[in-house]
Design brief:
The protein has 270 residues and is of the alpha/beta class. It is built from eleven helices and twelve strands. The model has no long low-confidence stretch (mean pLDDT 92).
């Protein structure tokens, strides 16, 4: 009954932590493609190929349902995977859906025409590849009208977070927020469009100010997954053992993951 969590590196651990707390009886298998991280500077074909490899590895671990905790993979590869590659007995889901549900206050299955929503000015902070894909704007446009989205590519931020360089990461957050505010001085909401970024949520909030609602993905994804499994209990795969897999150096990744989650995490080579 395992569920897979895929990420290009360690950022998806924020999602794993939230879903594990929300669904304590479900075993999760986490796959980090640390050897090829970060995805945010790769082209769409590379991201598609690497994401397929990671998902296939999670399927082999007994996970019929895989969550792409990597926003870049969700933006650049998910739609193509769902339309051309995922077999009918498997499911691959992304992390944009819960964000857009929260922002538009409508469920994903609501196929009524786009309508006006309360929030009109949205700041999107994401990797360069996610920003270039315009996937968030595309999905939002299916459900809402009159929403102005200003996207800021946050180059270097994932690398700083993965390296554990908190001083550099904080400086980059402030710099990227300042750059966005020059173009959109008064956003009402901010989307942290990378699963690494919740680790810097307080710095984003401080830089944006108290009047901006910051939407972070982990808790939203956890609640959405719980509802999905209530509706589709058959998608719990045959795997029964939780685990952590990486394409990188298992000991080095384990040490960094332990720092991230503040509990001992032991990765195995994928």
């Amino acid at each position: 009954m395992a569920v897979g969590i895929f990420d290009s590196g360690l950022g998806g651990l924020t999602v794993l932590d939230a879903v594990s707390r929300r669904l304590p009886d479900v075993p999760f298998v986490y796959f980090g493609d640390n050897a090829n991280a970060p995805y945010g500077v790769r082209d769409a074909e590379d991201i598609f190929a690497l994401t397929i490899q990671g998902v296939e590895r999670l399927w082999s671990a007994g996970c019929d349902l895989v969550i792409l905790a990597c926003n870049t993979a969700s933006a650049a590869a998910l739609r193509r995977m769902q339309e051309t590659w995922v077999p009918k007995e498997k499911r691959v889901l992304g992390v944009f859906v819960p964000l857009i549900e929260a922002l538009t206050e409508r469920q994903w299955g609501d196929n009524s025409p786009p309508r006006e929503v309360a929030v009109k000015h949205v700041a999107l902070f994401a990797t360069p590849a996610t920003v270039a894909s315009r996937a968030f704007q595309r999905e939002l446009a299916f459900r809402a009208v009159g929403v102005d989205v200003e996207a800021q590519p946050c180059g270097g931020l994932v690398d700083a977070i993965e390296a554990g360089d908190e001083i550099l990461a904080e400086a980059l957050v402030r710099s990227h927020v300042e750059a966005l505010l020059r173009r959109m001085p008064h956003p009402e909401a901010a989307i942290l469009g990378c699963t690494h970024y919740p680790l810097m949520e307080s710095t984003f909030q401080q830089s944006l100010g108290p009047g901006v609602t910051v939407y972070s993905q982990a808790e939203l994804v956890a609640e959405s997954l719980a509802h999905y499994l209530d509706r589709h209990p058959d998608m719990l795969g045959g795997g029964t053992a939780p685990g952590f897999l990486t394409t990188g150096d298992a000991q080095r990744v384990s040490d960094k993951a332990t720092q991230f989650l503040r509990r001992r995490i032991a990765f195995q080579s994928a």
